[in-house]
Amino acid sequence: MKQILVATHGGMASGIKSSIEILTGLQDKLDVIDAYIDENDLKQGITKFIKQLEGTTGVILTDIIGGSVSQEVLLQVHDQKNIFVITGVNLPIVLSLVMNSETLSSESLKRLVDQAQLAVLQPAEGRLQIVGQNDDFFETKS
Questions:
Q1: pTM for this one?
Q2: Tens of pLDDT along 42-93?
Q3: SS3 state at 68
């Protein structure tokens, strides 16, 4: 049984799965839906994923919060307490999920999401410096 579904507009989901295969060989741990590129039905794909979970915990990752894919996912999982939805999918969060060995919970997912956030790298004195959330990367120094 697969506990992870990546559902995106276009071929992004399959691209993430391809990268997971190259990096880890764990692509069989996830399902993907590439919405709106062929006759495959988004609703049916989501329903199929939910049914195969059989009440166990699952995660659905979508690309754009408020986008049509996310909206359809939320419509279908509104009464499913066993399914978490994460928007703004990126490769680091999917890597973390497929390699995760602990039980999925809201706390563990929050930690994984926090670890998978974007970072701004700034060259500084011959090395790359990660600019934190409290630093103003765009502030001009006088």
A1: 0.86
A2: 999 999 999 999 999 999 999 999 999 999 999 999 999 999 999 999 999 9
A3: helix
4-117 CATH choice from 3.60.10.10, 3.40.50.510, 3.40.250.10, 3.40.220.10: 3.40.50.510
Which DSSP symbol is given to 102? S
Domain boundaries, given as residue ranges, for the chain: 4-117
Between strands 120-124 and 127-131, the pairing is antiparallel
Q: What single letter denotes the amino acid at residue 2?
A: K
Say if residues 20 and 95 touch (Cβ distance below 8 Å). Answer: yes
Q: Are strands 30-35 and 4-9 parallel, antiparallel or unpaired?
A: parallel
- The token duo for 15 is 């691209």
